[in-house]
Write a structure and sequence with these properties.
- The protein is α+β, with helices and mostly antiparallel strands.
- Helices cover 24% and strands 22% of the residues.
- The protein has two domains: 40 residues, no CATH class; 36 residues, no CATH class.
- The longest helix has 12 residues.
Length: 95
């Protein structure tokens, strides 16, 4: 998953890796030229001072708890669509 953050000062979008399974890339900028065509800018990426940290990060949960929650969700052997799976995981997390 990537994160896209608007940098109004540089009139650009900052692209950063969020969850990359250990294969990260360096953040980069996407700007638009005078004709409105996007291009990748090779400049230095500045992080905004006011960037919000998420209140909950999945990687903060121990791997054993991940297994326990997924075991409970998939205990009946059923399959889920994305929304139903997310709701089931969330329900187990707040119990």
């Amino acid at each position: 998953m990537i994160s896209v953050e608007r940098d109004k000062e540089d009139e650009a979008s900052i692209i950063t890796p969020e969850y990359s399974r250990g294969i990260e890339f360096k953040p980069f900028l996407i700007k638009r030229n005078e004709h409105g065509v996007p291009y990748i800018d090779g400049g230095v990426v500045k992080r905004s001072e006011g960037r919000k940290k998420r209140s909950f990060e999945y990687k903060d949960i121990d791997v054993f708890i991940h297994h326990e929650i997924l075991g409970k969700v998939f205990n009946l052997g059923q399959s889920f669509g994305y929304t139903d799976l997310w709701r089931s995981i969330k329900a187990e997390l707040i119990k």
